[in-house]
Each structure stands twice: as C-alpha cells, then as structure tokens.
Amino acid sequence: MEFSFTPNATDWVRIAPELVVAAAALVVLLADLVVPARRHAWLAVIGLLGVIGAGVAVGLLLANGETGEAFFHMVSSDQVALLADCVILFACGLALLFSPDYLARQGVTQHGEYYALLLLATAGMMLMASATNLMTIFVALEVFSLALYILCAYLAQRFRSQEAGMKYFLLSSFASAFLLYGMALVYGSTGQTALAGIRGFLTTHPFRLTSGFGPMLIAALALLAVGFCFKVSAIPFQAWTPDVYVGAPTTVTAFMSVGTKVAAFVAMGRVFLFALPAARAEWQPILWAVAVLTLIGGNLLAVTQTDVKRLLAYSSVAHAGYILVGVVVGTALGYAAVLVYLASYAVMNIGAFGVVLVLERRDGQGTGLEDYAGLGRRRPALAAALAVCLFALAGVPPSAGFIAKWDIFYAAIVGGHTELAIIGLAASVLGMFYYLRVIWAMYFAESPAALAGGVIVASTTRRATGGPARPAGAPAVAATSAGGTAASATAVALAAPASPAAATGSAAAAAKSPAKSPAVANVPAPVAWAAGVALAIATILTIALGIVPGPLFTFAARAAGTLLR
Amino acid sequence: MSSFPALTIVLFLPLLGVAGALALPRQWAWGWALLCALADLALAIALFVAFDAGLSGFQFHEAQPWIPGFGITYALGLDGVSLMLVGLNALLTVVAVAASFGLVRTSERPRQYLALLLLLATGMQGVFLATNLFLFYVFWELMLVPAYLLVGIYGGPRRTYAAIKFVIYTAAGSLLMLVGVIATGAVASASTGRPYSLDLGELVAAAAKMPVSAQVPLFLAFFAAFAVKSGLFPLHSWAPDTYSEAPVPVVVLIAGVMAKTGTYGFLRFTLPLFPQGAHLLQPLMIVLSVVGILYFALMALVQTDFLRLLAYVSLSHMGVIVLAVFAFNAQGLEGAVLQMVNHGIVIAALFLIAGWIAARAGTRDLTRFGGLAARWPWLATVFLIAALSALGLPGLNSFAGEFLAFLGAFRANLVAGILATAVVIPAAWYMLRFFQNTTEGSLVTAGPVAAAVAKRRAGAASGDLRVGEALVLLPLILLIFYLGVQPAILTTRMETTVTGILTAANARTAAAIPLTRGEANRGTTEVFTMRTQRTQRDGPHPQPPVGDPNPSPTGRGEPVGVVVMTLR
Fold this sequence. Notes:
The complex is a heterodimer of chains A (565) and B (568).
Chain A: H1 9-14, H2 16-34, H3 41-64, E1 69-70, E2 75-76, H4 79-105, H5 112-130, H6 134-152, H7 159-190, H8 195-204, H9 214-231, H10 240-247, H11 250-275, H12 280-303, H13 308-329, H14 332-359, H15 375-378, H16 380-394, H17 400-414, H18 418-443, H19 448-453, H20 473-484, H21 489-494, H22 500-503, H23 507-511, H24 529-547, H25 550-564
Antiparallel strand pairs in A: 1-2
Chain B: H1 6-23, H2 26-50, E1 59-67, E2 72-78, H3 80-99, H4 101-106, H5 110-129, H6 133-154, H7 159-192, H8 200-206, H9 212-230, H10 238-245, H11 248-273, H12 275-280, H13 282-302, H14 306-325, H15 330-361, H16 372-375, H17 377-390, H18 397-412, H19 414-421, H20 424-439, H21 447-458, H22 467-485, H23 488-512, H24 517-538, H25 560-567
Antiparallel strand pairs in B: 1-2
C-alpha cells in the first residue's frame, strides 16, 4: 500500500503545547550541565517556564479555534485534549513548585534528569490525551510510563522507592502488553487504527457476535478494558497502586496520581465512547462491574489505613471508581462529568499530597496518622489546607470535590444509571469516614499518645476517659481486656486501649517504630515559599471551583459534546 | 420587591463575622462576632416587620444564574415559614455567640471557634433561604463541617466519638438526599418535558405530573436526610451523644436550629414536591413520630445525666413537630411551624441553664444535686420558667404550638392523636424531676455540687446567675412570655404560606384521583370556611388566596375539608 503524507504548519501548531513541554525538557537537560548543583531550583524555573509556555499555547489554540486533527488522524487538538492539557500542565506546574524543596530535603543530588523526566512524562500524558489513533495512544503511554518508572525509583537510597519503581515497571509493562494486544485485535477486526476510522467501520459494518470480526472484537474489548483499568488503577487491577504511590517521591506521586488518570481516562473515553460505541452492550457490563468494585473496594481498603500517604493512594483508587461511573454512563453528559471530575480531582488531590510531602521527613517517615496528631495546633495553616482538600475529596460543598461528585451523579441519574449513583453515595459515606479520620487526628487529638488512645475501630470504640457522670463499668472492662492481652501484639492493635498511659505503645503507634512515637514534637521547619504558593493555589482553587463551577462545567460539556455528538 | 439584596445580606453577614473573627486579634474576635450576629438579627427583625403577610409565594426574592445548563441558580426567597426560622436562627446565633464568652476566654483557639460557630449559622441561614435545590443542598452540607469540628475540637471528654457518630449519621442521610435532589430534577423534567431545573417553584409546579412510583423513592431519599437531622425515631442515636458532648453554645445552635432544618425540609420540600408519596407514606411517618415521642419521653425519664435528659426531651418535642407536619391539615402545619420556633427558644434556654449548672458543679449527674434554689434563687427561677414552658404550661410559649400540633394530629388520626398527647404526662414528670432534683429538697452536703456551692459562698462572687448570663437569657425568657400570650404575631405571618403548602400537598392527591368540577369546588369552600372559623379566634388576618381549585377531599390523605365537615 502506497502512502505519502507531508505535515504542514497546521499540524505542528496543533501539537504546540506538547512540543513546548518536550523542548523545555531538553533545555533542562542542557541547563543541568551549566547550573551548579546548589542552584538546582533554576531547573524547576525552566520547567515552569515551559509549562507556562505550553499553557499559553493551549490558550492560543483555544482562542483561535485551532481545534482539529493533525498528522493524518494521529493526534487532535480538540477541546477535550486542550482541557486535559490544562489539567496535566497544572499538575506538572504544582509538582515543579513542590520539587526543589522536597528534593533537597530528600538528599537528591541529580536534579537535571528529575526535571527532564517530569517534563517528558507531562508531554507524554498530554500526547496520550490528544491521541486519536491507537498507535499514538500506545506510544504516548509508553513515553510517560518510561519516564515515571525512573521517577518512581528516583530516591535511590530509599529501598521503598526502588521497590516502587520496579513494581510499577513490571506490572505496568504487563498492562501495556494487554493494551497493545487489544489494539492489535481491534486493528485485526476493523482494519483501522485511527479512532475515527474504527467508528466509521463499525457504523458501516454493524457489530454482531456472529459477524466475522465479532469474536475478535470482543476479545479486543476485554484486553483494552484490562489495560485501561490497570492504568487508572481500578479494582481488581489496583494492587500496584498503594506500594508505588507510597514508595515514589511524593512530588511524583502527586503528579502521577493526577496525570496518569487524566491521560488514561481521556484516552479510555476516546476509545470506548468515541470509537467503539457500537459495541457498548459488550463493554458496558465489564466496566460497570469494575466501577462498582472500585467504588466499594477502594473506599473499604482506605478505611483501614493508618498512613496518610497510603490512605491517599487508596483514595485515588476510590476516585477512579467515581470517574469510571461517568465512562460507564457513556453519554456526552457522562464524559463531560469525567472531565470535570478529573480537573477537580487534580486540584484537591495535589493539595492533599502537597501537605503530605511538605511534612515528609528525609527518611520517608512523617506520613503516619500519628504524625498528624495535633497538627492543627502546631501548624495551623498546613492543617487548614489539608482539611480543605480532604473535605473536598470527601465531597463536602462548597468545593471542587462536591461539584465533581454532583456532576457524576447527575450524569448517572439522567443517563439512567441511578444504581451507580446510589452505590457511589454509599461508598462516599465510607469515604467520609477515613478522610475525616485524618482531620480528626489533626484537630481533635492533642498528641500522638492521645491519638493512639482513640484509634477508632468501628463504632464500638469509646474513649476510656469518659465523663465523670458515666458509670465506670465499660472502661473497667476495656482496661482488663487491654491489660490481659498486652503481650499479644495483634490483640492490642485491635482493642481500644483503656488509658492514655497504656495506649502509647499500641494500635497506630505499634504499626510504626515505637521508638519515635513519643518524640514527634519536632520543631516545624518552615515551608519553602514555592511549596507554600503551590499549596495556596491548590487550596484556593479547590474552594473556588466549588463556588464558581460554571466555566468548567460549560467547557467540559462543550468539549464532550463536540467529541461525542 | 426592591432590588436591595436583603436576603443575601442576611445570609452572608455571619460569614463577615467568620472573616473578622479569623483576621482580628483574639481579644476583639468575640466582640466582632457578636456585632455581626446582632446585625444579622437586626436585619432579620426588619425583614419580619417588612414581610407582607397577605402575599403568597416568596418575598424579597433574588435569583442569579449560577451554573447555566444544569438548572442551578442562586435563588433566595422568604415566605411565612422560612421567615420564622431565619429569625430563630439569627436570634439563637446571637445567644450562642454571647454565651460563648467564657469559652472564648479560656479556649486556646477562640477565633477558630467563633469562625466555625458563625459558619454554622451561615449554613443554616442558607438552608432556610434557598429556593433552588442545589443551593439548598450546598448549604445543607455546609452545616456539617463546622458542626463536626465544633463538636470534635471543643466538646467534652467523649467528643471524638460524638463527632464521628454525628458526621456519619448526617452524611449518610445527606448523600441519599443528594441522589434524591438530582433525581427529582430528572423526574420532573422527564414528566413535564421542560429543561432540567432545580428551581423550587418549577419543581412544585411539576409535582402533579410526577408518577407515584417515582415519588415514593424520592420521598424516602429526602426522608433520610431530614429524619436524621430532626432526630426521628430510629435515626436519632447521634443526638444524645452530640448534645451531651458539644459545648453548650453549640448545642444551642444544633438542637435549637439545626434540628429544625429537618422538619423544615419535610415541610418545605417533601410535602409540596412529592404530595402523593407523602400521602402514601403518611402512616409510616405518623407511626415513627408517635413511637419517637413516647420512647424519647420515657428515655428522658430514666436519664441521670441531665444533658442527655434534655437531649431526649428535645427529640421528643421534635417528634411532635414531625407528627404535626404529617397531619396534613392547617392546624398541624401551623402548630409545627410555631412549635419549631418555640422549641428552639425553650430548648436553647434549657441547655444554657443546664450547661451553667453543670459547669458550676462539675457534674451532670442528677442524683448528686439538690436544694440549689436556696442558694441560687435567680438561676432556679429562670430554670423554672423554661421548664414550665417546655412542659407546655398555658400562657407560656410552647402551649399554643403544642396545642395546635396535637389538634392537627387528632384530626389526622385519632389513635395517633391520643397516643401522642399522652406524652404530656411523662413530659411533666421528666421536666419536674429534673427541676426538683436539682433545685428543691435539702441542699446536698457532700460531693462536687456541695463543694461548688460552698466555694461560691466563700468566694466573692455569688454562684447565682451572673449579669452576663442573665443578659444572654433575657431575650429568650421575654419571648417565652410574649409568644405565650401573643402567638398571633407569628401565626398571622405564616397563615398564607401554610395554606399554600397545604393546598399544594392536598391538591395533588386530588389531581391523582379525578373529581368532578362540583366536588372540587365544594372542597375549596370548605377549606375556606374552616380557615375563617379558626382564624377568627386569632384575630384579623389577611384573606387566604383561593389558590389551586382542587384542594379537595379524597383518598388517603385526610384532607382538611372532610374533617372540618365532620367536626361541624
């Protein structure tokens, strides 16, 4: 087959945002040669300039209506892509603001590669979000995944970081293979790799199980679903998520928890909703089951976590469930809700991770629930920022999290999936529980000891220091049981300790090394101004989006509408 | 009305207090918060005076587009029912802030406390003012955060348990309502063919066309949120914990106002939006509230912790309000609204007094008290006034509301009426037990109470009611007397609205079962006769609008007309 294609200026213009970010990555690599190690923050500045430049490019494309396919149906700068670009750039920008201080604290010496890889991952994610061809989707996926493998393992002296990189690499490659196999089968059954082509083929050749390409396409759908669900860390493909998110440098976690989700969900929407709507009856039940599993499982798993970073990792699984609801609904409304959710999730999740990374110490400690005890007293501004983001993640108005949940539930109910909305809200009640537990640690517990004394195990826990008017029976029973089983570590971890004195070594504290739990009253280090700015941006946007959601709603609705009309 | 955004100001004045409390130095924060609360109260009183009792529908209405395309507007409105509750909220906010003086002085984080208190007040004002379901839901959830933090940070020894329990109960209910809100808009838009809208007026207009099969689940979704907040029988168990652990000024707002958001929700949303669903589920509501009324009264009898006792008292009274709402007649609804205001005033006074006694004595154990009246006569006096009002003594404020509520219940269902009214016996018993155990009998000679009394006697200051405390209590006591003899000042303002809600709630039943024109008209006349009769007793009042032509007697709902006829 003869084929010739010459890119013209329009093609280049339409991928300008990606180009700018990629160029910034190269500039960072070059600048690394001349910038002295002490002044590594300048690399972040270069990266930021690249991000801002890409943002301007996005704005110009939008303003000039340069929205369309480029490079022979390979990528598109449509509104969905541009909205996703904004979110990814936002995530990258904040990660860059957080990074200099964090890297210095973690004793990282090679900065150039870090920033370059971060920017390359950004470019890859943006490319995946704008990809309109199975080939581009895969290439973009590999671009950002490769960068992220290295970034996850970037803290070379930290064992868990190494583990994270390795784990992510192995499992993610596996998933990529699934995806690639699925793509190959789609090509095999339709003869197309361009999404528009696949859609066109399926309109002219109605999809039936008995038709020649039917079985192959079914297999393709299953493989694609597995691949995408892995990338967005949906249950039952979530096993890598907590370990990788906890092990990776927190700046990277913050960035990738948002960026990969945006890229993967946008691509997922393009593939399932735009290219394969003809096979909806086949893929919808699969994704429905995955969404329900993810909603319930993600929230359930998060409930038991006592490490805030890990808790946020599981919460990101849970949020993938909410977003999946939008995909399952499958209407333009549902896809718009997905976009709104992604943008909102970016804002609040980076804010939450931002506080975690500011508090994280060099040895990777400082992320346990007990480290957050009394934070409201010790560091009121940080605690307030985290509280805002956690309330938002729990879906309390007025916040980005609330309008996102509203939009998802709205799409589900209007789209005829009330059951998903009801399951989602039941899961939200669980979510409320674990997010509020962190807030409770920050504000209600005065010290780590008090926190251990009050670890809430289901609803039966009673604080032993009951009011003077209370009968002494219950505390006494608790005291005997805790005292009698003090030798058994498991029993202590389960029982509510009877007194603050006995509580010191148990429950949450027992999960960590007992030596450091009494002496958390370390002098708070000042928050680097750049990280402070980033936190302020995330927190303010979290609330602002909740009060003025109109523009985002309109943009997302228009973007999804033009893609899926 | 005019373009002056009075409601927006009433709504956001407390928020100004929040900003000020956080920004100002801590010694000024309390003054600023009180100033904002007082300004809010002044504006609420001005609205109360300016309110035109003769007009139906919302007054001072404001509407701005908020999220176009999703039927979401920033819409505020005031009618005869919300007027009462906005006023109550403004009043109790002032009381709560004023009563926080001691707490603010001793607390480590007074500014955050005041900010949260006023944020809570903002949320509740918004709940009462919103006329768009989205806006309503935003404010509804907004109440949750400050209440959670106030209980959890500033509460008593078991505050964490209480706060978590509170938040899980209310959040579960609220999230169910979230689905309900979204689905109501969807069902309404599907049944009328109009674009999706969450505007209360449009939804009420669409209510007639909503199928019953949708109305029942929607009613239940809203029910979850409202029942939890108002402490209806099986969903109440957060309340005693929260009421006994939260700081007293916070309890004043939670028990005094926040509990009313539940009954207000029943009245404002479930009745006009899902009239047929409400009629179908009326037996359920009546059973739950009657069981609650009696069960809580009996629980109050056996409590030894007097804050928990008051919590059950409050829950029992809230049950009366819910019962009155679901009586579906004018007496019931008016009694319910009146009782929301009265109960707010009385329970606030009782909690304040109980809190002061507990703080002085260092214990809340009823069995360790006795004979306080001899030493603290003023405290005992105001306590007696509030207690007598709570048990419904004629001449004090609760009587009129309770009477109307029970009357409504009798007319709706004789058995429920008899059972519910029987609560006055345990009510008198638990109130007097509380009062007598603490203030009468011989003065205890041992234990913390005796120590507190002795300390107060030895010290310079008397342990009796302080001037500041008296000032906080004064408006409540005055209202207890004034509303006792002049309930008409409230009832005249709410009549038109109550009639409107009732017409909406009953007319839909009529629409469901077609009537001949003649029957329908007769129904209207009867409602009219009944209203005129009843209100002659209360003095002159504006003519109720004829409203919907079909507020007619039919079916399950025991509508007004038939009942009145039989009584005549």
